[in-house]
Amino acid sequence: MSDVERVEPTDGQLIMRTAGGDRRAFEELHTRYRRAVLGLALRRIGDRGRAEDATQDAFVAVWRSARTYDPARGSGTSWLYAVARNAITDRLRRTPEPVAEAVESPSGEPGPPDEVEASWTAWRVHRALEVLPDNERPVIELAYWGGLSQSEIATRLEIPLGTVKTRTRSALARLADALEEELR
Fold this sequence. Notes:
By secondary structure, the chain is mostly helical. The chain is 68% helix and 0% strand. The chain has eight helices and no strands. It has helices at 11-19, 23-45, 48-65, 76-94, 112-129, 137-144, 150-157, 161-183.
């Protein structure tokens, strides 16, 4: 018995069969040229997603216009590439390149991680303030949350300036000890 060689149809034959509605002929064309047409689209468009859309448009155009193929005017491959180039160009015209957004500069505002850290630190400081004696706590609160100077605190609390300085120094030492324990 002799081996019968299978003869592959030419591109032109597949296009003419596609013109007659032969889906298998179209599938064969698609299998043969999908990567090449995608490569062409990628080179023209530069974006893979848009190139894939253009490739699909190109094969839809091949299916729809297969009846216009004339083997006397050129090879099936040339006709297919011409149809694909036109479809890709049409896609470029229909969907222009998206406008690039301006690069945002980093905000001067703290981000979520910074806000979380600040909130955690504030909670720890408030918790440490609870351990201060009643005569030291107002000195720290007026200095740090009230924004008062030591002289203003002395006037407000009606105590000597030296006492404000001593209580401030003592309160800060207690806070440092309490916060150091928190960090361990």
